[in-house]
Design goal:
Blueprint: H1 3-13, H2 16-25, H3 37-50, H4 60-67, H5 72-84, H6 94-101, H7 107-124, H8 129-135, H9 141-149, H10 160-169, H11 176-190, H12 194-203, H13 208-215
Helix pairs in contact: 1-3, 3-5, 4-5, 5-7, 6-7, 7-9, 9-11, 10-11, 11-12, 11-13
Length: about 220
């Protein structure tokens, strides 16, 4: 499977009008082909099936080749491919995932990698939670955001102490994407343990944005 396999199909579906709108939505940080998610996934599903993606070890050369493409849709394909092949992810792959997180960084790719890929690795290889302890101290904002969000889908398996510790470490951080991540992570865990989240928010001097997000569905 090569980048060309996708680009051949994508060129047929390219829509410049939609591309302009999609780029504007992402603050014009990235170019787009104008292929929306349902259309893109129809194409990739067909190609993934043809190449038996998910049944073979991850082709990291392909992942990084997709990441290097100018149009944002290719980064989305790379993430879809990783999720499709997640059973082949190993503990050591966090190093390569970090390269993706810190390249062409924005919330759309970072959040997908955080929950669906990084979260899967840490859940499968619990000792890798120590890597998250390093990431929460990282100088890169997106790496910190990933550490905060990696437990989003854990529900009752959430390491509450670690989650609260991460949120407390950056409670005073005024960076929008960090404050938002804290609120989102707490709100998600609040679906499983609302009492604990409410108490944490009451006892912790969080940014107002974090508080609003955390308690959005918990306050009457």
């Amino acid at each position: 499977m090569q980048v060309q396999d996708f680009s051949t199909q994508f060129k047929v579906m390219e829509n410049k009008e939609k591309a302009a709108g999609m780029s504007a939505y992402m603050k014009n940080h990235f170019e787009f082909l104008g292929i929306q998610t349902p259309e893109r996934r129809k194409i990739t599903a067909r190609l993934f099936k043809e190449w038996e993606a998910g049944k073979n070890p991850i082709d990291w050369k392909l992942v990084f080749a997709l990441w290097e493409q100018s149009e944002r849709e290719y980064q989305y394909v790379a993430i879809d491919y990783l999720v499709k092949s997640k059973r082949y992810l190993s503990a050591g792959d966090l190093t390569q995932i970090k390269e993706l997180i810190t390249s062409k960084s924005w919330w759309d790719t970072v959040d997908s990698l955080a929950s669906a890929v990084v979260g899967y690795i840490v859940k499968t290889f619990p000792e890798q939670a120590e890597v998250m302890d390093e990431w929460i101290e990282d100088d890169n904002m997106w790496v910190k955001r990933t550490a905060i969000l990696h437990q989003l889908s854990y529900k009752e398996n959430t390491d509450e102490e670690r989650l609260f510790n991460y949120c407390e470490k950056h409670a005073s951080d005024k960076e929008f994407f960090i404050a938002k991540a804290i609120g989102w992570a707490l709100r998600q865990y609040g679906k499983t343990n609302p009492e604990s989240v409410i108490k944490f928010v009451e006892d912790t001097p969080l940014q107002n944005l974090s508080k609003r997000e955390a308690l959005k569905h918990l306050q009457k």
